[in-house]
From TrEMBL, chain A:
Belongs to the binding-protein-dependent transport system permease family. It is found in: Cell membrane. Coiled coil: none annotated. PROSITE patterns: ABC_TM1. One of its GO terms (biological process) is transmembrane transport. This is Carbohydrate ABC transporter permease.
TrEMBL record, chain B:
Belongs to the binding-protein-dependent transport system permease family. The keyword Membrane applies. It is found in: Cell membrane. This is Sugar ABC transporter permease. The keyword Membrane applies. PANTHER family: BLL4140 PROTEIN, DIACETYLCHITOBIOSE UPTAKE SYSTEM PERMEASE PROTEIN DASB. Residues 1-21 are annotated as: Disordered. InterPro entries: MetI-like (IPR000515), MetI-like_sf (IPR035906), UgpAE/MalFG_permease (IPR050809). It is a multi-pass membrane protein. Residues 1-12 have a biased composition (Low complexity).
């Protein structure tokens, strides 16, 4: 597979290897000492470690708390283990509590992410390809409108979208969450940048001369070249749909259709309702289980999202 | 608002070969069509519908009547709305500079090449971005607890009594902390990505001229990533004005401190779903959207023109 960075504007000439990190330092063993290979600084590392601690301590707290029982949570210190190691019990209880509703929420989330993020990526790839490689009436207008829409508060749209969907009979169904997730202006923009760089127009013309239709040219020629950009857009749309809270909050009343975010919040609020059983250990364990897949995806696909952000940020 | 420009305009390579497009044809619409159709359904139609809603009023006597701009007049006099706008403006003025400042410092530290374990720093600081706002807020909400949370631990360990982070005076700062935690790494990565494409020949030239580290940062690095700084600022402003998730999830823990008109978005949500005032809610949302767009646009214009 081609390196993602090689197709990013501004990076391609300088970094053919796709290795992360400032290029001259890695690729050219010149001994221009202080500019290219400065000495490491313990002081700077220590100062930056403060931000590192800030970022990681809450996650450590979450991981440790997931090993505690309900009583252990309130009795023991936050950043150390309680006597009872209850992680496995907590996980088992999270999945079985309330007739296994957590599993249902997980499956709902997978459905919303699969169709929402998958669909959003597909639409963005098609649209970005069109904007990059075709000239057609209204092309600039489309771009201006889509980018302008980014500034519209998403929550401002929620109320009218809810009213519209409720007249169409879509509220309280998965479609109410999936359909609005299908649009990612950032994804469209990113795919445009990628397609402009990654697909040589000559290649498309060669395919056409060979008699390939537009659809075939797209799937056989363009799509493979766009693969690294597609992974980036998919990752970011996945985070957006996996983490979505406001949209399902507005659209869904039936807990059976809740995604994980809404479900966890309902468990947390359960303690405050009359006669509700507090299940904070399950809230904590469920939270940990909710973030693990995304953290794993980010760690495994590092080079893709980093190149994607680079593509988005070099624009002036 | 155009934060971003077409890629051709920003193409850094010298003289790219001219893209030979097909003669202008409608073929492109075949590929763009699906996006535009869904976009019209979930973006344009709701905007049009809320403008329509904002011109009517649903009254007990007489039903739904056309009231022209009366709802807008009411919104402009609405003290609850202005108070919530003031709150998010204060939030914006304090939280955004702190968050972007930390993000920029970390990005510069990473880019300086002087850190031990740079890649570990980069990925770790970014990780909170993958945490849903719900989980982040629940987590911090637990930790804020003065009895059982980390604040309680500190109190009992040191024998002090820290003020309650969820008290009315401090809750806005506590929300700011959660938002900062969530997005510091994301902004850091945007800055860092921009710093990495600064041509190294510039640093060498500066070195020959005898410029120190600080001078290199202020004279080369910051101007070079101005575009990224402006974009991050604009998105942070939009995010602050849209504040909803964190206060609404913290609300059960801080009932006295967080009211349902705490932020403009919370207010429109409550108007619509608790109060059934859909028409007025749409009006407030439109006013808020316009204010957001104007401010984002002004910041972008000024940021692109002036030096950093």
């Amino acid at each position: 597979m081609t390196s993602p960075v090689a197709t990013v504007p501004g990076r391609s000439a300088a970094d053919p290897s796709g290795t992360p990190g400032p290029v001259p330092r890695l690729r050219t063993p010149r001994h221009r000492h202080s500019a290219d290979k400065p000495r490491r600084s313990v002081l700077l590392t220590a100062l930056t470690s403060l931000v590192l601690l800030y970022s990681l301590v809450p996650l450590v707290w979450l991981a440790i708390s997931a090993t505690k029982t309900q009583e252990g949570l309130s009795r023991s210190a936050g950043l150390w283990f309680d006597g009872d190691f209850a992680l496995w019990d907590n996980i088992a209880e999270t999945f079985t509590y309330d007739d296994g509703v957590f599993t249902r929420w997980l499956l709902n989330t997978l459905l919303y992410v699969g169709l929402g993020a998958g669909g959003a990526t597909f639409l963005a790839v098609l649209g970005g390809y069109a904007l990059a490689k075709f000239d057609f009436p209204g092309r600039r207008a489309v771009f201006a409108v889509v980018i302008g829409a980014v500034a519209v508060p998403g929550t401002a749209l929620a109320v009218p979208t809810f009213l519209m969907f409720s007249e169409m009979g879509l509220t309280n169904t998965p479609w109410a969450v999936i359909v609005p997730s299908l649009i990612s202006p950032f994804g469209l923009y990113l795919m445009w940048v990628f397609a402009t760089e990654a697909i040589p127009t000559e290649l498309m013309e060669a395919a056409r001369i060979d008699g390939a239709g537009e659809v075939r040219t797209f799937f056989r020629v363009a799509l493979p070249l766009l693969a690294p950009g597609i992974v980036t857009v998919l990752l970011f749309t996945m985070v957006a749909t996996w983490n979505n809270y406001f949209l399902p909050l507005v659209m869904l009343k039936d807990p059976d259709w809740y995604p994980l975010t809404l479900g966890l919040n309902s468990w947390n609020q359960q303690a405050a309702t009359a006669g509700g059983e507090p299940v904070f250990n399950l809230v904590v364990t469920g939270s940990l289980l909710t973030i693990l897949p995304l953290i794993a995806a980010f760690l495994l696909l590092q080079r893709y999202w980093q190149s994607g952000l680079a593509a988005g940020s070099v624009k002036e | 608002m155009t934060t971003l420009q077409p890629p051709a305009a920003a193409e850094p390579r010298p003289a790219p070969p001219p893209v030979r497009r097909d003669r202008r044809s409608w073929t492109g619409w075949g590929f763009l069509g699906p996006f535009v159709a869904v976009f019209a359904l979930v973006f344009l139609a709701p905007i049009a519908y809320s403008v329509y809603l904002s011109l009517f009023r649903d009254q007990l006597i007489g039903g739904t009547t056309f009231v022209g701009l009366d709802n807008y007049a009411e919104a402009l006099k609405d003290e609850q709305f202005w108070a919530s706008l003031g709150r998010v403006s204060l939030f914006l003025a304090v939280q955004v500079p702190i968050m972007l400042g930390i993000a920029l410092l970390v990005a510069l530290a990473l880019d300086s090449g002087r850190l031990y374990g740079r890649d570990f720093f980069r990925i770790s600081v970014f990780l909170p971005y993958a945490v849903p706002a719900v989980v982040a807020t629940l987590m911090w909400g637990f930790m804020y607890g003065t009895r059982f949370g980390l604040v309680g631990d500190i109190n009992s360990a040191l024998g002090v009594s820290l003020p309650d982070p969820l008290s009315p005076d401090l809750v806005l700062a506590s929300i700011g902390n959660i938002v900062t935690w969530e997005f510091v790494g994301y902004n850091m990565l945007i800055f860092y990505s921009a710093l990495r494409v600064v041509p190294h020949s510039l640093y060498e030239a500066a070195q020959i001229d005898g410029a120190g580290q600080i001078r290199v940062i202020t004279a080369i690095k910051l101007p070079a990533i101005r575009g990224a700084l402006v974009i991050a600022t604009v998105f942070s402003i939009i995010g602050s004005f849209q504040l909803f998730n964190e206060p609404s999830i913290l609300q059960p823990l801080a009932r006295n401190a967080i009211t349902t008109d705490y932020t403009p978005n919370y207010y429109t949500y409550a108007l619509s779903f608790n109060g059934q005032q859909h028409n007025y809610s749409a009006t407030v949302a439109i006013v808020m959207g316009l204010i957001t767009m104007v401010i984002a646009y002004v910041v972008q214009l000024r940021g692109m023109r002036k030096g950093v």
